[in-house]
Amino acid sequence: MKHLLSGNEAIARGAYEAGVKVCSAYPGTPSTEIFEQLPQYKDALYCEWAPNEKVATEVAYGAAIAGARSLCAMKHVGLNVAADPVFTASYNGVNGGFVIVTADDPSMHSSQNEQDNRRYARFAKIALIEPSDSQECKDFMRTAYEISERFDMPVLFRTTTRVSHSKSLVEFGERVDVPPRPYVKNVTKNDCAPGYAYQKHPKVEKMLKALEEYGNTCPLNRVELGDGEIGVITASIAYQYAKDVFPEGTSFLKLGLTNPLPMDLIRDFASKVKTLYVVEELESFMEEQIRAAGIPCIGKEKISNLYELNPQRLRQMLFGIEPEIRELQVKAVSRPPALCPGCPHRGFFYTMSKRKDVVIAGDIGCYTLGGTAPLNALDTCICMGAGFSAGAGMAKAFEVTGQKKKVFGVVGDSTFFHSGMTGAVEIIYNKANIIPVVLDNHITGMTGHQDNPGSGYSLEGEVANAIAIEDVLRAFGYQKILIADPQDLSAMEKAVDEAENSEVPAAIIARRPCLLIKRLKHDIGSCEVDPDRCIGCRSCLRVGCPAIMICGGKARIDANQCVGCTVCAQVCPKKAIARKES
Amino acid sequence: MKDTKSALLVGVGGQGAILTAKVLVNGLMQAGYDVKMSEVHGMSQRGGSVSTQVHWGEKVYSPVIGKGAADIIVAFEKMEAVRYADFLKPDGIAVINDYELPSLTIAAGLCEYPEGCVEAMQENFTCHVLNAGAIAESLGSAKCMNIVLFGSMVRALQMDGIDWESVIAETVPPKFRELNLRAYRAGYEAVS
After folding, report:
1. How far is A543 from chain B (nearest CA, A)?
2. Does pLDDT of B41 surpass 70?
3. CATH of the domain at B73
4. Residue B136 in 3-state DSSP?
5. Quick check: B23 contacting A, CB < 8 Å?
6. Is A527-579 in the same CATH topology as A2-215?
7. Would you state the pLDDT for residue B17?
8. Does the domain formed by A222-319 have CATH 3.40.50.920?
9. Long-range contacts of B171-178 (CB under 8 A, 24+ apart)
């Protein structure tokens, strides 16, 4: 029987079938669902959300050193956070197999850049495996562990949004029970002290050579021979697009093991076709190496390195075939994402949007939407944790250059535990003139509601000791910690004022749980506009709630969307909005 | 490629397009087709424009479709039909829910909801326009609007070879089974 699975679901199944025992990850689109699927196998393996990707990678790598097959997973930018242990794991090697999943996001559907993480495999000198559909996501996992153990190296398992989030049919296999490899203390292998590292680098080069040799015959790399006119070297989702676009009779070298590239196999394939194409999404990762080997090919001079491909774009770029489309006279206006009705972040951002001369350093999460119109209450968004630390740098610059600006740094609860804590240390220890604000909604929201060290539950559903953010801040030395319900605008305003005027180091925690947390009971109601009182001043529109609109010059609240948070009612100068009593 | 069909389900986050795609895919799988579908998660879910693509045939390679490649668009909201119109083949079909959901930028008065969305689609494509929300409410719950649209899609694509009623019964939660079957039939009858 075949199952329709997303690539992420198939990776989870593949890890289970491969006998994986320890799994650690931090959520990030498009990788998150891999770990959301793992608890169903908790009788056979341990899985967890770690505070960040570096910790997740180290936990999984430690488990591999101890002899268990292990897995970590993250979005592409997560690997930037986790890069440090990966580069050393390359030198030290593994004991049990160790696989790192990186889910790249071409076109930046949910990301801040579209970096091509294949380059990390080459940079760190480790194996790279790229599946092109869900069946391969599952099957390649098992091979990934065999490669990791046989060649004594971590394996980078790279998907893209369209591999991770597309669903296709998958045939299941049986779980192999892999006995743990014995752990034997071995300092020359597991210690990266310079003297040992010096000796390990030649081993890394040797293993890469051996892996390249293996790639020439490895089942992950496959030749589909056609009539000899056109040949296409491709991998990952680009293979699927190329199959749709190239004519019948085209030969394909479809690669699943893409670092190191199997150069003998590539040379042999190239010799069998008249015209060679290299079809890859984003950077010219394969093409550069193929050209450097003296093999002429057509690639990035036609195929853009911008954004994700699809069959139509590829056809257009390669063969100049324009799609047949009908141009409409009417144009759709943009529909950007927005904070949900009843989102606790709204009250904080509304409060900040009214202040002049403040600079707000933002961060990654649902609250990044506080920067969109009409709230416009963020100045920057860079990466996880930068809300505090880049904010601290801005504050230092304003101080040194004599500019009077008040800086606020904003992170969420999950981001606080991820990498906000170190920024909070920076602020207090180096006396940066910035007020750290934690928007604590008790959950990791944007990625779809995963637990974190502040939420009190583990990935496997066990109750955990929630870490109180105020206790952490107090331990760092913040002497005034203002905790306010952001839905109560006057309380929020008061907290911001008090923090700003504080003589001692102050921090703010805006605390209210996300309405989408399923295990909590929420007080859901609905607000209504009294049209006789409404003067159409549009003050309520400034809270940026999707449920409020203007109809016939007066405010109207969509009862289907409104949850009765009353933030709009609190800003109405005519008291024309009230929560319906049920 | 020649023998494949593709559908694009578009709307606004939270309208139920994903469940509709699931019913479609379950039926196609039972009928023995190779099926791929693609959706985007994450930030776009928060009230943004969302699309789900389903691609089926004897053998399917790409899970995504490009411009000018969809056989049918099912638009859960009428401006979304316009947004994705260039993905439709010139001889493609559009099933349009005659329902207007202003975006935040429109609600905030920064821009206007475009006039004539349905008419523009009708000028260019074979269209089936219905008020699926009103039909759903008349059946007892606005929540089954997605299955009303699904019924219209089945009729528009003439996919009668599959026992959709049993697929729906198997896919939706038991307590909404009757409601959704009525929704399917009503949607099927609403187009010709």
Report:
1. 10
2. no
3. 3.40.920.10
4. helix
5. no
6. no
7. 85
8. yes
9. B171/B19, B171/B22, B171/B23, B171/B26, B172/B19, B172/B23, B172/B147, B176/B143, B176/B144
Q: Which residues contact A323 (CB under 8 A, 6 or more apart)?
A: A312, A315, A316, B66, B67, B68, B69, B86
| A460 closest CA partner among A129, A122, A78, A48 | A48
Residue B117's domain comprises 5-190
CATH of range A2-215; options 1.20.1440.230, 3.40.50.970, 3.40.50.300, 1.10.1740.10: 3.40.50.970
The whole-number average pLDDT for the span B64-76 is 96
Sign of the Cα pseudo-torsion (A345, A351, A356, A358, in order): negative
Q: What is the pLDDT of residue B44?
A: 53
| CA A431, chain centre distance (Å) | 32
pLDDT at position B46: 63
As given in the structure block, the two tokens for residue A140 are: 């390649």
> How far is the C-alpha of A284 from the C-alpha of A379, rounded, in Å?
34
**Which of A29, A312, A550 is opposite residue B42, by nearest beta carbon?**
A29
Residue B16: the pLDDT is 82
For B5-13, what is the mean pLDDT? 92
Nearest Cβ partner for A546 among B34, B39, B47: B47
Provide the domain count of chain B: 1
Note the pLDDT tens digit of each residue in A504-513: 999 999 999 9
**Dist CA A565 CA A486 (whole Å):** 11
User: In chain A, where are the structural domains located?
Assistant: 2-215, 222-319, 345-511, 527-579
Residue A552 has a pLDDT of 87
> Mutation test of the interface with chain A: which of B15, B33, B43, choosing the one with the most A Cβ atoms within 10 A?
B43
CATH of domain A345-511: 3.40.50.970
Query: Which of A333, A541, A551 best probes binding to B when mutated, by most B CB atoms within 10 angstroms?
Result: A333
Instruction: Spell out, as residue ranges, where chain A has pLDDT lower than 70.
Output: 582
pLDDT band at residue B144 using 50, 70 and 90 as cut-offs = very high
The closest of A62, A110, A545 to A308, measured between CA atoms, is: A110
Residue with tokens 């290299």, as numbered in its chain: A278
pLDDT > 80? residue B109: no
Chain A residues within 8 A of B13 when measuring between CB atoms: 337
Q: Does domain A527-579 have CATH number 3.30.70.20?
A: yes
What region does A337 belong to: left with phi over 0, alpha with psi -120 to 50, or beta? beta
